[in-house]
Target: PhzF family phenazine biosynthesis protein
Amino acid sequence: MTEYDVLRVFCGPDGDDGNELGVVRDGAAVPAEDERQAFARRLGFSETVFVDDPERGVIDIYTPTLRLPFAGHPCVGTAWLLGLPALITPAGRVRARRDGEWAWIEARAEWAPPRTLRQYGSAAEVDALPVPPPGEWIYAWAWQDEAVGRVRARAFPGRDDGIDEDEATGAAALLLTARLGRALTVTQGRGSQIVTAPRPDGLVEVGGRVRPA
Model:
């Protein structure tokens, strides 16, 4: 039986909600890509991480149906779990830090998978959206308070893998931050919270609360 940790990443201010993440600390226990894909499918989380080098932070990320070169909530959750200054993903080296229940990463917008960022006129419109049919990956968002950078968002992966709506997606928040060029506090899904900020070197910082599930 392969052992794995389950975390909730991007929890809300009260510690609830957050997106579940599976982390296999001993990646060698599931060595082949097809085995990892099958394992991620069985777990059924939006993403599962396999740690291939716990000292250097080399990780491999899978959804139930595909392998990702980079993803936000898996990197934030694994950064919190391992407590390393960086993670190594196929997309590049992700700087990381941890402070109590919080963890942050710094990554480039071009590392994130393509997303359609679709703005709506109000948070109520975003709340009322039905789940769209499979197709494009949609990040629906609206300003809650533009002056202070508060955003309401929901994420629809558009895949036929049982994940109709993603509770909290760091990569999409990263892309939105890069587009708007300002720090954001995003409330996504039921009540998950993502905080972001553009960095002067072209990176975007993404962070949130992490707790064991």
About this structure: Helices lie at 33-43, 72-82, 123-127, 170-180. The CA atoms of residues 59 and 89 lie 6 Å apart. The mean pLDDT is 96. The chain has two domains: 5-107, 111-201.
